[in-house]
Each structure stands twice: as structure tokens, then as C-alpha cells.
Amino acid sequence: MKDYYYFLGIKDDASEEDIKTAYRKLSMKYHPDKNDNDAFFAQRFMEIQEAYETLSDPQLRRNYDHNIVSGRGSSRSSLPPTVKSFTSNKVHAVKGEEVIIKWNTLNADVVKIVPFGLEKAYGERTFRITEFKNGKFVIILHAANSLTRQTAVKGITITEVFNNDRERFRDNVEDLFQQRDTSGTARSNISGWAKIVVAILLLAAALYFILQEF
Fold it and tell me: Record's superkingdom (predicted)?
């Protein structure tokens, strides 16, 4: 059964005024007209509408409370929720790059991934990062057990990189290997070894960025 109290971000004993206040705030935030009719916001808005229509009606709310309490007692786990795994195929990405996240939770009947919304207890999502904030894109998974009122949280941070960063590393490595030292002195030999060491470090960094693309 859907947890309407969770949808509105309120407690089970919330007053009618609490329900109205939460609904107004969330409906304004997630209204499709204010979010370019994005599918995620449209779905979230429908969930908020559904929750409000049920909880704002005294009789519907009493029936809902009775059913959800019975359901929690019979089918909900009393063990604390756990995030078994939450991974991303990339920790560095350029804007617009495709990213895949996967997750698996235990003993959680409500799973929410910010900024995407409610999800199943386990799954996979593919998306493209359109905006970074201060060079970071943060994804947070909340796994909640509505019976025990406990929540497990885990996050992933993806750092923004630029295509010219990867190209610059490649160019630096190529330049170092193409340079010729013809002085023939001991000093030049030491300098040559230093360049080799730097080249190896730059090569390792370049390979790291390249591998992030796969």
C-alpha cells in the first residue's frame, strides 16, 4: 500500500492544516506547468494529488489509516532498513553524459532517490546529467521502513570534468614523448628521467579519464 503520509512529508497524526500546508507547498513545487511538463514532476504531482484527496477526506482517511496499519502489521518487516548496494558506473562525467545507477535495499517499503523520486526496493536507472552544482552532481538514496520509522541513507557524488581536460592530458603526454634532448650531459640525462616519470604520471591520469568514458 502506498504511504500517503510519506508522499506529503508529514506524520501519521498530522492535522488537517498540516495536510493542506504540505499539499500547497509540494503541488507548487512539482506542478508540471512549472517544470516544462517533465515526466518525473508529472508523476510526483499525481502522487501528491492522490495523497491529498485521500487524507483530506475524514472518512477516506479513517479507512486508509485502518488499512495501512493492518498492512504494516502483517507484511512489513520489523528489521531496520539497509542499503545493500548503491553504485554508479561513473564518478566523473561531462555534462550530457549518460550515467547508470543501480541499487538494492532490504527491509524498506519506501525507497526514494533524490532527485528522481520514489523507486522500487531495487533497480537500475539510466539518465544524463544536464546540470552540475559547483562541479558536483549528488544522488541520495533514502530507504525507509514505515513500520519501524527508520531510514537508511547513502549517497553518490559525480564530479564534473570537461572534454578539453582529457584532451589536455593526452596532448601533454604526446609532447613529452616527442621532445628530444641532444645536450648529452649528465644534467640532461637527469632531466630526461624526470620527464619520463612525469610522462608516466600524466599517462596514468589520461588513462583514468579515458576509462571513465566506458
Answer: Bacteria
